[in-house]
């Protein structure tokens, strides 16, 4: 078999066999296939696509390029949740404890964020002492005793994806749906869960800018998951406006704690309940999505989910006093309110611009080596559809550098589109793919 022939076959738009895809993945992972051939192959896929069968083979081979986690030492049906990424997305911090409180084990491998805000791991590390470098034994033990553990993704989880993603990033092949689907699902399959719930975001702050493209990606990932023997659901959610109010690491943990205390933002909680309901239903703990939601609501009103969160923080070395008294979090000392300079209705808040404002403050990483400032970020005080008057506060900014706060403030003001006509808020959930 020659890589040249495989590239040529995909260039002609023909379907590849499992053996041909394996030849590529194995050869690229062990270094015998050079970057220039891999680049040409990725571009042929980006242009001519892959069908579900080909994408499933590609995903499985990418997953099997490294360690496949065996979660059988954890009792129960294992569920995992993945978000395609968004601004202010702290859903994992709320969903994990809620679902675990219902006896559904959550063993989560999570990444650090490269982008506007940190990832789940970065957010959790804003709690003093919180440790995500767990040994496998501690990881499994914590899931068995508390129901929830979050650890940093090991380097050996789908290494083929790591290598391919770096190449896609510089060859204009990131946006190909089969390649995105294989990339995300290879890591999910390797992480070992029986049930996978995907939050596919759409809108200005998301990877997928249109609902149609989000649906196409969702469909493909659900097909791959089901073909691989994992029960998979995808919920398509809005990422035009930022999710909830807080953007920034400690600020998002504080908002998650507020939500676990029953005071969550309406849109944020709608997304939380929908995703969590599919996790509980998929794990067989509820006979319907409605029943799952009812059970989940009870984990909040009873305080059970908050207790699981506190136990989880403590078990991973974090100071659990922060969970019961979030005022302990040290926020940026340069605090500024962004005041509204016109009266009218908020027509849109561009999440991508809000994300850049938080990046300027230091809440995210510009490069792999950037160091995150956990206490900086912003709180959005007005949402799309709201009436605003001159002088009202649109958002509060927390930084540690006056110049950066000024720069972020200009960027943030530009993210608010204010006009004379009342606009309806965006939908929250667009569709569910089962
Ligand atoms: N996230 C991933 O993990 N992979 C992609 O290709 C895109 C988003």
Summarize the SSE layout with pairings:
Layout: H1 3-11, H2 18-30, H3 35-48, H4 52-63, E1 79-83, H5 91-101, E2 106-110, H6 120-124, H7 136-146, E3 148-152, H8 159-169, H9 177-190, E4 195-202, H10 211-227, E5 231-238, E6 246-248, H11 249-260, H12 266-282, H13 289-301, H14 304-315, H15 321-324, E7 334-339, E8 344-349, H16 351-361, E9 377-380, E10 387-388, E11 393-399, H17 402-415, E12 416-419, E13 429-433
Parallel strand pairs: 1-4, 2-3, 4-5
Antiparallel strand pairs: 5-13, 6-9, 7-11, 8-10, 8-12, 9-11
Helix pairs in contact: 1-3, 2-4, 4-9, 4-10, 5-11, 5-12, 5-14, 9-10, 12-13, 16-17
The chain binds uracil.
Radius of gyration: 22 Å
Supply the CATH class of the largest domain. Alpha Beta
* DSSP, total strands: 13
- In DSSP terms (H or I, runs of 4 or more residues), the helix count works out at 17
Low-pLDDT stretches are none
H-E order: HHHHEHEHHEHHEHEEHHHHHEEHEEEHEE
The CATH architecture of the largest domain comes to 3-Layer(aba) Sandwich
Oligomer: single chain
Identify the notable features of this structure and list them briefly.
434 residues; alpha/beta; Transferase, Pyrimidine Nucleoside Phosphorylase, Chain A, domain 3; Pyrimidine Nucleoside Phosphorylase, Chain A, domain 2; Aldehyde Oxidoreductase, domain 3; 3 domains; four-stranded mixed beta sheet; 46% helix; binds uracil
